[in-house]
Amino acid sequence: MSATSVEDRRLLAESVRAAASGSSPRPLLAEHGAAGTDEALWVTLSQQIGLAGLLAPEDLGGADAGVAEVAAALGELAAQLSPVPALASMGMAGPLLAVTGDGPVRALRARLVEGTPASVAWPHPDGADLTPTLRLEEGMVHGEARFVVDGMAAQVLIAPAAGPDGVVLVALETEAAGVSRTPMTALDITRGLAAVTFDGAPAVTLTAPHPSAEFLRPGLDIALTCLAAEQVGIASRCLDEAVAWAKERVQFDRTIGSFQAIKHTLVDLLQDVELSRSALDIAVAAADAYLEEPTDRTASALNIAASAAKAMCGDAATRVTDETLHIFGGIGFTWEHDAHLYFRRARTLELLLGAPDDHRARLASALGVGR
């Protein structure tokens, strides 16, 4: 992993912001509420800017960058609710592949660098349990996965599966025989979720068998860190919008930002955003330290920091988006305004891969608290 400076990350964030400027999921919302994908924007981001290859090594065409760069990009895209499979491909599939070594993994990572959208069929998407629910029998996968992020847009799915000799990570082509995908109705209508059924679907085994799925734990923790980056991006954007509205909206011949109740609320939200940003920074540093030196010590530090960030950033994003609705007043509750779209995204991310309370319990367990 090559070293990058704060200035490099700032320039990357500016490039992503400029490319995604004006992007909106609204034109891609279908009548049934499922979100589509801006394929042209994804090509620009993944191939021209190189986002899809941030974590990949240079010999595969990647940037050999770190989680800090991925988090910066995801935060910018989340701030605009950009309809691209960035979280699924860069923030979930990419980290899992980054922690699982070489062999067949390298070929798949090279495809992701080229912009092939991928996602992860998490066995338990409501928590951090990696125990496989899919079965691998004679090279074929059987089972079902639900709440697959951007599952309808993904061309490749990766997932842990229970094989005859232990747990392995497998890759499946979404257009292959035996794979059936169905869009799911979700609170967040700006990002698609899918239910995927595998009925004898051919799979590529990416790793050697392991006694359990714990060898994938660092990949999950990096994915949690990427989720937290999205939550900070959403919260920061909504706070900025709320402050701007408080300076503009006039009630009783005064801007509403001059009222004590609004001022105190905005200060509280600023505190939420900055504390969550600090938690994210710690998790990002722990993730990059693990990728630089994958040891038990760095894995433990990443586990602790990732759960702390997911809990704090989840709480912050939900509070900020909720209060933003109230600060905007009546217009904030209308379909035409984007405030409710940010609230929907924040609530969905809050629960994905574990709610804040779940991660506080996970954090306490990792620290040995309450034993």
Automatic annotation (TrEMBL):
Residue ranges annotated for the Acyl-CoA dehydrogenase/oxidase C-terminal domain, each copy included: 225-366
Organism: Georgenia ruanii
SUPFAM superfamilies reported in the protein's UniProt record: Acyl-CoA dehydrogenase C-terminal domain-like (SSF47203), Acyl-CoA dehydrogenase NM domain-like (SSF56645)
Listed GO MF terms: acyl-CoA dehydrogenase activity; flavin adenine dinucleotide binding
CDD domains xref list: ACAD
Domain (Acyl-CoA dehydrogenase/oxidase N-terminal) ranges: 7-97
Origin: domain of life: Bacteria
Essential cofactor(s): FAD
Name the record gives this protein: Acyl-CoA dehydrogenase
Pfam families (UniProt xref): Acyl-CoA_dh_1 (PF00441), Acyl-CoA_dh_N (PF02771)
Keywords: FAD, Flavoprotein, Oxidoreductase
Family: Belongs to the acyl-CoA dehydrogenase family.
